[in-house]
Amino acid sequence: MTPNRRELTCCRTASTQSVGAGSLELLKVETNKSAEIRLHMTRPMTADNLIVYTLTPEAEGTRFTWSMSGDGGFLGKLVSVFIDCEKMVAGQFEQGISNLKNLVESKPNNS
Asked: Is 111 within the bounds of a domain?
């Protein structure tokens, strides 16, 4: 395991329902600009995804955006017909972004 890889033995939704296992690998960081992370799921099905976090300066602060793209194969496409995967993980992303916002806003301005 590389130092920038963290194994996910179990990911859980807000309802504490198990949703799978896999690993995260930090691929690229541009300080105060962006981060790219590889999400490789191994259970319940294999999938490789690229997650990109982007910070964009704006007049009143910083816009934080994220995107996820990848290939889950035929089974992944089939599952997405019956399960809204975005809805399943959206609460976790929103909580993480809220935690990040609170952390950043609690730090003194270093400029």
From this structure: no
Q: 63-90: per-residue pLDDT in tens? A: 888 888 887 778 777 877 887 777 777 7
Residue 96 placed within a domain = yes
Q: What is the 3-state secondary structure (H, E, C) of the chain?
A: CCCCEEEEEEEECCCCCEEEEEEEEEEEEECCCEEEEEEEEEECCCEEEEEEEEEEEECCEEEEEEEEEEECHHHHHHHHHHCCHHHHHHHHHHHHHHHHHHHHHHCCCCC
Report yes or no on 44 lying in a domain. Answer: yes
Report field, pTM of the whole predicted structure over 0.85: no
Domain assignment of residue 71, yes or no: yes
Number of domains in the chain: 1
